[in-house]
Design brief:
The chain is an alpha/beta fold. The chain is built from eight helices and 17 strands. About 20% of the residues lie in helices and about 30% in strands. The longest helix has 13 residues.
């Protein structure tokens, strides 16, 4: 018999019992559905051992690489240290090392971390100020290179955290930073596969990180970045992305403006619509969608209808409201 360790709790699996069966028998709160490995409701993460390949089913490659597996399909072959989906992420105090405006409403925030190797470009973390107010932001750089995490913080009307980050947070101040979360990041396999990156607003943040990571790993397939906003003034890093496209022959960058006439060098229309019109067949592409949830949801569906595998569509939908996370 083998043990399942969750935080400071230890549960013993009976012979032939799955991880899900053990947790349910021990009254551990874990979501589940079909118990046949189809609904993927019972995904958990192994923190110390590699799960058997057959327990990972049709999970995304990024989930597989980080030790996630289907609890209903795993009969343990050794003791395992687990993290459940609802388990709270730990926090570390980190210092702000840079803060500067990138456009009229978006601020670049850079925070130094001691364990940068744990974070991946494109993942997100929770940032928490001293009174407990917490918001989530995506990582816009390769943390391992600089030992820092970069975030694009858009000022939102009525946004308590974003207004504070723009107006009061200073270099040298401390923020609590959570463990990395999310699975929208680049894996250096299938380097010849096309990458289609579509983002709106500060959806450029995770895409910029993913793009930098892909280029750093020598990705050889075509990389197409489409970044859109209603007005030109709400786009940013356009010159930097154009320069990257000049340096890397396999990279193209298309800034998109959806309101009014697009200036020279910009595409007219919504970024997702422009991107999908340019790519009628997505059967061999890996796709990253970041930004407004309506855009992400509709584009995910259209990309699938154009031939993309669901396992190759990675999404990071930003919740937008006066108490938004982005």
């Amino acid at each position: 018999m083998f043990d399942l360790i969750i935080k400071n709790n230890r549960f013993t699996c009976r012979p032939g019992e799955t991880v899900l069966d053990t947790l349910l028998r021990e009254n551990v709160n874990i979501p589940y559905g079909c118990r046949a490995g189809i609904c993927q409701s019972c995904v958990v993460q192994s923190l110390d051992v590699t799960p058997p390949a057959e327990t990972q089913g049709n999970l995304k490659d990024t989930l597989k690489s980080s030790g996630h597996f289907l609890a209903c399909q795993c009969v343990p072959e050794q003791s395992m240290r687990l993290k459940l989906p609802a388990q709270e992420a730990g926090y570390t105090d980190c210092a702000v090392v840079a803060s500067e405006l990138m456009n009229r409403n978006t601020r670049l925030l850079i925070i130094r971390v001691n364990d940068a190797h744990r974070y991946k470009a494109g993942q997100f973390v929770n940032l928490q100020r001293s009174d407990g107010l917490t918001r989530s932001y995506s990582i816009a750089n390769i943390p391992q290179v600089s030992g820092t995490l970069e975030f694009h913080v858009r000022r939102l009307p009525g946004g308590r955290f974003s207004a504070w980050a723009h107006d009061e947070l200073r270099v040298g101040d401390l923020l609590r930073v959570s463990e990395p979360q999310g699975h929208c990041f680049y894996l250096p396999d299938r380097k010849e596969q096309g990458l289609l990156l579509i983002g709106t607003g500060t959806g450029l943040a995770p895409l910029a990180g993913i793009l930098a990571d892909a280029l750093a790993h020598g990705h050889s397939g075509p990389i197409r970045l489409f970044h859109g906003s209603r007005e030109k003034e709400d786009l940013y890093r356009t010159e930097e992305m154009h320069e990257l496209a000049k340096r890397y022959p396999n990279l193209s960058y298309t800034p998109c403006v959806s309101s009014g006439d697009a200036p020279e060098g910009f595409a007219s229309g919504r970024a997702n619509e422009v991107a999908l019109a340019a790519h009628p067949d997505l059967s061999r592409w890996r796709i990253f969608l970041c930004g407004h949830p309506d855009m992400v949801k509709s584009t995910q569906k259209q990309a699938y209808l154009k031939g993309a595998r669901l396992a190759d569509i990675y999404c990071d939908a930003f919740v937008v409201s006066t108490e938004a996370v982005y």
